[in-house]
Write a structure and sequence with these properties.
Strand content: 35-45%
Number of strands: 10
Helix content: 10-25%
Shape: globular
Keywords: Signal
Order of helices and strands: HHEEEEHEEEEEE
Signal peptide: 1-18
Radius of gyration: 21 Å
């Protein structure tokens, strides 16, 4: 009995010591700043901007009237702030292409984007949105959370 109790306690303490704590997982996630790749479309031209998701403001240095912003690796609709030139703030609408699964932000009326600021994290497609401990890790960048994993908006074989 005594041997079994000591062995069990030793095994339990080894398992607890080997299991990463929630704090270390959270700290690891906070140390890694994501980068949002945004593609700004305006009539026949486009430009790409890499925006760190750390809250810093990134100037676009471009004056084209943007009508679509593609954001396929980051949830820019909720996690980014766009500053537009002109007297009136345009309306932004989230859009997901039901054939390709690509997500965009529709800008109306078209306007030049002066700067962008993004903050927060999201989980890439097939990443874990819930951990092994059933704790929420984060929202999916481009898709939805099902059975602990981020799934794409459409099934991979359904692209025509």
């Amino acid at each position: 009995m005594r041997f079994t109790l000591l062995t069990t306690l030793s095994l339990l303490s080894a398992l607890v010591a080997a299991h990463p704590t929630a704090e270390s997982s959270l700290q690891k996630r906070e140390d890694q700043v994501q980068t949002a790749t945004l593609v700004f479309h305006g009539a026949p031209v486009e430009y790409t901007l890499q925006v760190p998701a750390d809250g810093s403001v990134v100037e676009t240095n471009n004056d084209i009237n943007v009508n679509i912003i593609d954001a396929n690796d980051y949830h820019a609709f909720t996690n980014c702030q766009f500053t537009f030139g002109g007297p009136q703030q345009p309306t932004l609408v989230q859009s997901i292409d039901n054939k390709t699964g690509k997500q965009s932000i529709i800008v109306g009326p078209p306007a030049p984007v002066v700067s962008v600021s993004c903050q927060g994290m999201c989980v890439p497609v097939y990443g874990m949105c819930y951990g092994f401990d059933n704790q929420w890790i984060g929202p999916c960048c481009n898709g939805f959370c099902a059975a602990t994993r981020c799934r794409p908006w459409i099934a991979p074989g359904n692209v025509n």
